[in-house]
Specification:
The protein is mainly beta and 151 residues long. It is built from two helices and eleven strands; from the N terminus they run ββββββββββααβ.
Length: 151
């Protein structure tokens, strides 16, 4: 699929798509072989565990709220107006540890299989079986890291 020239209206996704990804809302804004972009809303307490995109560079532009992150094993955060750069092969996890929604704009290049992954994860729910999510993600070129050892 390649989107032609045009406008994706605020609050709407291409072709009316709105994904529910493990309790977060992703609204795709643009999709082509070379890139995929989407608006994301992270409700309080939601997160994306540490993972790696071995074949994609990912970027996040912060619109609202504070996103906590673990980038290559180091803790950090991003606020509105910040851009998070996530080069391929670098582990990253994203967390909304606040009491308010976090809103941000993501894009990856190239698109690879991420569009298909979002369809595969759509509506699994916030209590999805982690082993299933990890297996589905691996088939779509996203590798989740094992949880740290409990001490």
């Amino acid at each position: 699929m390649t989107e032609g020239a045009g406008v994706t209206v605020a609050g709407e996704g291409i072709d009316g798509i709105k994904w529910n990804i493990l309790g977060q809302t992703y609204v795709p804004k643009q999709y082509s072989e070379s890139s995929l972009s989407w608006h994301a809303t992270f409700p309080p307490g939601t997160f994306v565990p540490p993972h790696i995109h071995p074949t994609q560079d990912e970027f996040i532009y912060m619109l609202q709220g504070r996103l906590s992150l673990v980038l290559d094993g180091k803790d950090g955060f991003a606020d509105p107006g910040d851009t998070i750069r996530l080069p391929r092969g670098i582990s990253h996890g994203l967390y909304n540890r606040s009491d308010h929604d976090v809103k941000c704009f993501f894009w990856v290049t190239p698109a690879q299989r991420l569009y298909d992954l979002f369809w595969a994860l759509h509506n699994l729910g916030p209590n999805a079986d982690p082993a299933e999510v990890v297996a589905v993600a691996a088939r779509h070129e996203v590798d989740f890291l094992p949880p740290p050892d409990a001490e």
